[in-house]
Amino acid sequence: MEALVAALQDPDTRENALLDLSKKRDMFADLAPILWHSFGVIPALLQEIVSIYPLLSPPSLTNHASNRVCNALALLQCVASHPDTRALFLNAHIPLFLYPFLNTVSKTRPFEYLRLTSLGVIGALVKVDDTDVINFLLSTEIIPLCLRTMELGSELSKTVATFIVQKILSDEVGLSYICATAERCYAVGTVLGGMVTMLAEQPSVRLLKHIIRCYLRLSDNPRARECLRQCFPDQLRDPNFTACLKDDIATQKWLVQLLMQLGYTG
Questions:
Q1: N or C, fewer C-beta in 10 Å, the chain?
Q2: What does the pLDDT look like over 244-263, one tens digit per residue?
Q3: In contact, 68 and 113? CB cutoff 8 Å
């Protein structure tokens, strides 16, 4: 492992080292601290990211370039996930380097893969309940970027972006932030409703599960409840639509609770 990490420092050996380490990252429990504390490695990974910014607009990202930078992002996800490096990763504001990728709109495979892998890094940060993470993400305007992906991304990208919003909402700071104004509530509610409408044509139980969790958490807030009643999708009150949840008892319960909190009989 040490030889591969050292190879990241040399531009001539970096590409193969990125590929090998990203494939084998789960085999090395201490990879994240070694990446963080090895001289020149994090700057090398950031250089990989910054080097493709010119390919974002106009969109000219190739599969090869996308795969290469996604290997670098996979290693950064390691760092974001590890308890010894998560706070260091956040304090260095490294997530900001990923935001331009989440701001893209091209639906080609290279861009979709880039967005999905970038969301994976943010998703790794929010998996552990940590208000410092939520504060950082809110202060850097992650919500509009997630909403954009929830509208435009593939089913998998939508799912990860919705999971991130769900985790932000689960924190009191996150819920207060989104419910601070009617505009924010309505923006989130409108995007959630649009995804439900889309699921009527392209069903996805895993995405629907996260959507319902977002709605349920929003319904804990009085202002959000009023907002949701104005833009709540009829499909979630239609037994034919929600029949896909028949094997997911927990999500069925969440939906019943949601309908009750919004004043619907279910």
A1: C
A2: 999 999 999 999 999 999 99
A3: no
Distance CA 52, CA 114 (A): 11
pLDDT in tens, 208-225: 999 999 999 999 999 999
Residue owning tokens 């029949």? 243
Structure tokens at 146: 């997630």
Q: What is the dihedral of CA 134, 135, 136, 142, to 10 degrees?
A: 60
Tokens representing 237 are 């009150």
pTM value?
Answer: 0.96
b vs e for 38-59, b when ≥16 Cβ sit within 10 Å of the residue's Cβ?
eeebbebbeebbeebeebbeee
Give Cβ neighbours of residue 240 (< 8 Å, ≥ 6 apart).
Answer: none
DSSP 84: T
What's the confidence (pLDDT) of residue 1?
Answer: 85
